[in-house]
């Protein structure tokens, strides 16, 4: 793990913390096989529509289903001029046999409309908070019962949770964590950049009592719940947000401490069963995808470090 952090910090020094720049070997967008956008109307969230794109690896073989990477805020994940550029990064890593063959799915939050507006661009759809920042199982049901079956009608992908990763930035990170936390049988890996483990989802009743809790509840839940068989990578910047919802950098540190404590407590009591596989990087940046985008190749290598890449 320490070697990864050294490599990532070196990478950040090279890329700079303000933005990420494509490496010379990164393929152009024209060479990447990206399908979509497709529209998905939800039964879990009636009256909403979302878009998704599918990156199909060049070595895709339906008889050998690839790994799966599902990433939130898909409009930014696939943006060729953005910080993440996930299709190009996947294409480069797979082409160089740095990670196993991987199908990428990039999904936007829902929007209240009959069809997804073409005018949104990189802006957030208007149903993002209700989906991403809720601790309920609703977004997991959309993901597992609606989105993935829609993708599976055209492309096969691995069913083993160890070969599936879910990730995102900001509220997309906490949405990804919620899906994996509730359904480790479906996703065994989480990529969390600038995660919003804060009180965005907190709703108060007229008397001030909580009607729904926010993501700042997770550190306590982690400490008091059974350990899930999850591999988690956390990144946040020391200059992240500090507002009425909470302090993002402190919230991410609390998540790390809770995961580490759960492991140490289980070890001290000699409990059998899984342990959280955790690594993290704290950078100097703010609430931006830039630092996460700069380290994405190293993070994906770490996530699937014990799986052989196809040749």
What does this structure look like?
With 311 residues, the chain is α/β, with parallel strands linked by helices. Helices cover 33% and strands 20% of the residues. The protein has nine helices and 13 strands. It has helices at residues 2-15, 74-77, 86-95, 128-132, 138-152, 171-182, 218-224, 248-268, 290-303; strands at residues 34-41, 48-55, 67-71, 102-107, 111-112, 164-169, 189-193, 203-204, 210-212, 231-237, 242-243, 246-247, 277-283. Strands 1, 2, 3, 4, 5, 6, 7, 10 and 13 form a nine-stranded mixed beta sheet that branches. It has a two-stranded antiparallel sheet with strand order 8-9. Strands 11-12 form a two-stranded antiparallel ribbon. Strand 8 (203-204) and strand 9 (210-212) form a beta hairpin. Helix 3 runs parallel beside helix 9 (290-303) and helix 7 packs parallel to helix 8 (248-268). It is globular and about 50 Å long. Residues 13-30 have low confidence and may be disordered.
């Amino acid at each position: 793990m320490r070697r990864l952090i050294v490599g990532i910090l070196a990478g950040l020094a090279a890329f700079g913390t303000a933005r990420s720049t494509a490496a010379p070997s990164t393929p152009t967008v024209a060479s990447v096989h990206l399908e979509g956008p497709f529209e998905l109307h939800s039964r879990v969230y009636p009256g909403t529509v979302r878009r998704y794109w599918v990156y199909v690896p060049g070595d895709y073989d339906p008889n050998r289903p690839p790994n799966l990477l599902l990433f939130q805020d898909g409009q930014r994940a696939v943006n060729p001029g953005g910080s993440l550029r996930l299709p190009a990064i996947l294409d480069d890593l797979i082409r160089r046999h740095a990670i196993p063959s991987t199908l990428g799915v990039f999904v936007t939050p829902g929007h209240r409309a009959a069809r997804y507006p073409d005018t949104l661009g990189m802006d957030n759809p208007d149903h993002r908070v209700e989906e991403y920042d809720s601790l309920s199982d609703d977004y997991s049901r959309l993901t597992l019962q609606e989105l993935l079956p829609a993708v599976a009608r055209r492309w096969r992908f691995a069913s083993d949770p160890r070969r599936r990763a879910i990730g995102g930035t900001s509220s997309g990170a906490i949405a990804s964590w919620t899906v994996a936390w509730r359904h480790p049988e479906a996703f065994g890996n989480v990529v969390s950049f600038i995660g919003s483990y804060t009180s965005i989802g907190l709703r108060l009743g007229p008397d001030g009592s909580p009607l729904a809790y926010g993501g700042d509840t997770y550190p306590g839940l982690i400490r008091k719940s059974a350990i899930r068989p999850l591999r988690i990578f956390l990144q946040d910047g020391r200059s992240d947000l500090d507002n009425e919802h909470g302090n993002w950098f402190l919230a991410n540190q609390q998540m790390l401490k809770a995961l580490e404590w759960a492991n140490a407590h289980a070890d001290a009591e000699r409990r059998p069963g899984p342990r959280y596989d955790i690594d993290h990087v704290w950078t100097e940046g703010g609430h931006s995808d830039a630092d996460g985008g700069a380290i994405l190749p190293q993070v994906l290598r770490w996530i699937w470090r014990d799986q052989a890449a196809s040749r």
